[in-house]
């Protein structure tokens, strides 16, 4: 989606939001209109007012402003009884309806939700983030940095406000209706991160029912649930706690840990190490074949440029940054080989 398309899309979101808000207060407004109509009809029938004057009098009665006050002595008993009944009913109804309308219109999260629902129902090929776990904040920030379009579906208003965006639907992640509103059926992938694993499992099953081919990535708390989620249709399942713990442990073993690769392809769990080649070190002027065993070179950064194309005979120079993949327990040997004498 180019810049112009994004501008038009945002404009349509803001234009569509009022209609969504109106649909929320429409039943209350209809009740209020019916009460005004009934009271106006009484004035037309008994006072022989024209309809504009009658509506004016009806609104005055319903709102208790009292701008129109007919002569009570000349009013028929039936009219008095009917107006008393209308007034008794309308006062409480008007107060309730007016308070409800103001409450709906003044809540910012409802406007955000309205824009999010319009966006989710019109986007295609986007990412749907579902859940109420705080890790969602980081997932959203990463998608922002990648320039990816996404919609967040959460039942946590505080989390929605912290996201600070209009791409949020505040609803129930386990409801088909809200998942459809987020565009699950037209998305390219979904990220599920609920605070409880059983809720994440239910959401995964719902998503699979609505769009079986969709790629689903799930973050779980308990690693023992991995098989259950894979059976439910999740494409990638990882333990957030386990990942964080292992990264910290790897960093404790070696200060050169720059990343972590999940066990997603049966290759095992490996860390990414980043090493600066110092002048006079063993690796300065040596081919990559001299890199200590137990790690695999995956990238050379030279003069600020990434070079992923090399062979085992490629010479490493002082000033290069060597990026390797492997078990962090082997990183100290790589660090020693890249340290200057």
Question: How would you describe this protein?
Answer:
Keywords: Membrane, Transmembrane, Transmembrane helix. Residues 124-238 form the RCK N-terminal domain. This is Potassium transporter TrkA. This protein is α/β, with parallel strands linked by helices and 341 residues long. The protein has three domains: 3-106, Helix Hairpins (Orthogonal Bundle), CATH 1.10.287; 109-239, NAD(P)-binding Rossmann-like Domain (Rossmann fold, 3-Layer(aba) Sandwich), CATH 3.40.50.720; 254-338, Alpha-Beta Plaits. 50% of the residues lie in helices and 17% in strands. It has helices spanning 3-46, 51-62, 77-106, 108-122, 135-146, 157-163, 176-181, 197-210, 226-232, 240-253, 331-338; strands at 127-131, 150-154, 168-170, 189-193, 215-220, 236-239, 257-261, 270-276, 295-302, 305-307, 321-326. Strands 3-2-1-4-5-6 form a six-stranded parallel β-sheet, sandwiched between helices. α9 (226-232) links the parallel β5 and β6. α1 (3-46) packs antiparallel against α3 (77-106) and α1 (3-46) crosses α4 (108-122). The longest helix has 44 residues, at 3-46. The chain is elongated and about 110 Å long.
